[in-house]
């Protein structure tokens, strides 16, 4: 909840703002939200917050102040401000994610970097003969593409056996996920092998669905999986994030997707354990050997301002009723409402029940659009951007054997505080026009 004094004074560290005798508490207004995101292209229906996130103007101003502080006297900034500022951000993140200790929290560029840190450690386990060749790493089939590549680059090359958990789509319940996950663990343990690492998404990217991570982590513990890494690129600011409740060994999430930070910043949580596994940043700096949090806080000269504006971000979200919890609740309710509106307009369905969604939802696209390949999804996405000024990702679902007239194309819509109902109506009308015109993806040039 924000108080009535000028918000910018708070960001500037001005403690001498006038306090009235009867302070009036108020929340951010629609016009103030519009001003905070006035740098967004007003001609585009930007219903894809999930890909790159968004950053309000007040936080961009705070970032600029940090950048100028560095540029005005880099030595003073390095020795007297940088480490203290990053520690402050780590402390705030610790509280947001309910971790026990601040030294369990490192700040890195993004979830892809965090995955490289964890998978690098797994690769050393194989190359240093701590693991047997052929021991397994389990991951979801819908794991993020870059994470799959990291597993290939680190684990497969080092001699690990990778098992993908096939997941159905559309999904009807968490039971479908749990059943397939258990089967994959059984496969990983066949012939006396060990499952050394399970990589679990919290919210898959494409198709997007909230995964029951707490239950899957519990199953991993029961089945003797060495370590669990939760790739939660979308989670913080989007769904419930509680380290003590989830119980994973490693957990990462981007703060620039759903928590309004400028790109790029993510946290990597590493649970303290008696095993004392030592992780290292893949970029080796002078800080090597001083612990991952310290290594990550200095990887050479670069712009660290995204890692320093977390206090300003919390100032921003607390201007909303209910703070970040209120934002998450309203985003979820609105994106489900908009998804149901689109599904009804197109005669299709959602990709999963509303309770398996957070601030993003999948909706089937009319079958007559003729989406028959990944290439078609990119062509259609470009067409929607260039002809209709709608920005939305498209997903191709290959038809299964025996399926007739199944939906092969789905869109993923997001909702963030800057979105308006008209953004979704614009998308609805664009698809309806394509259907009315007899459009198919085959008409688009390669």
Automatic annotation (TrEMBL):
Residues 1-22 are annotated as: Disordered. Its EC number is 5.1.1.17. GO terms for molecular function: isopenicillin-N epimerase activity. It comes from Rosa chinensis (China rose). Keywords: Isomerase, Pyridoxal phosphate. Residues 1-18 have a biased composition (Polar residues). This is Putative isopenicillin-N epimerase. InterPro entries: Aminotrans_V_dom, PyrdxlP-dep_Trfase, PyrdxlP-dep_Trfase_major. It is an enzyme of class 5 (isomerase). Residues 56-275 form the Aminotransferase class V domain.
């Amino acid at each position: 909840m924000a108080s009535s004094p000028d918000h910018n004074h708070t960001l500037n560290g001005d403690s001498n703002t006038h306090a009235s005798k009867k302070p009036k508490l108020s929340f951010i207004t629609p016009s103030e939200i519009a001003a905070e995101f006035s740098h967004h292209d007003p001609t585009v229906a930007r219903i894809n917050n999930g890909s790159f996130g968004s950053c309000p103007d007040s936080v961009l101003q705070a970032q600029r102040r940090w950048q100028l502080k560095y540029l005005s006297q880099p030595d003073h900034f390095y020795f007297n401000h940088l480490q203290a500022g990053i520690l402050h951000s780590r402390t705030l993140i610790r509280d947001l994610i309910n971790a026990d200790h601040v030294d369990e929290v490192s700040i890195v560029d993004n979830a892809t970097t965090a995955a490289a840190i964890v998978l690098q450690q797994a690769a050393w386990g194989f190359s240093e003969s701590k693991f047997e060749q052929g021991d397994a790493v389990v991951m979801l089939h819908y794991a993020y593409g870059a994470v799959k590549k990291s597993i290939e680059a680190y684990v497969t090359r080092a001699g690990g056996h990778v098992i993908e958990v096939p997941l159905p789509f559309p999904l009807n319940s968490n039971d479908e996920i749990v059943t397939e996950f258990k089967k994959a663990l059984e496969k990983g343990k066949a012939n006396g092998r060990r499952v050394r690492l399970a990589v679990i998404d919290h919210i898959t990217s494409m198709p997007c669905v909230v995964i029951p991570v707490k239950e899957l982590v519990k199953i991993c513990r029961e089945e003797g999986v060495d370590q669990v890494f939760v790739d939660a690129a979308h989670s913080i600011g989007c769904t419930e994030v509680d380290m003590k409740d989830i119980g994973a060994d490693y957990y990462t999430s981007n703060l620039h997707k759903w928590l309004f930070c400028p790109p790029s910043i993510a946290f990597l949580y590493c649970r303290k354990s008696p095993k004392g596994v030592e992780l290292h940043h893949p970029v080796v700096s002078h800080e090597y050997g001083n612990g991952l949090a310290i290594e990550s806080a200095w990887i050479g000269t670069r712009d660290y301002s995204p890692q320093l504006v977390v206090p300003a971000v919390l100032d921003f979200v607390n201007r909303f009723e209910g703070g970040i919890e209120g934002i998450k609740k309203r985003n979820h309710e609105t994106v489900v409402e908009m998804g149901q509106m689109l599904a009804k307009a197109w005669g299709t369905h959602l990709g999963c029940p509303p309770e398996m969604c957070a601030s993003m939802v999948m909706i089937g696209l009319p079958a007559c659009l003729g989406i028959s390949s990944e290439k078609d999804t990119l062509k259609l996405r470009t067409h929607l951007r260039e002809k209709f000024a709608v920005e939305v990702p498209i997903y191709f679902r290959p038809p299964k054997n025996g399926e007739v007239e199944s939906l092969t194309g789905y869109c993923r819509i997001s909702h963030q505080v800057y979105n308006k109902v008209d953004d979704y109506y614009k998308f609805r009308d664009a698809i309806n026009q394509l259907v009315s015109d007899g459009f198919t993806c085959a008409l688009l040039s390669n």
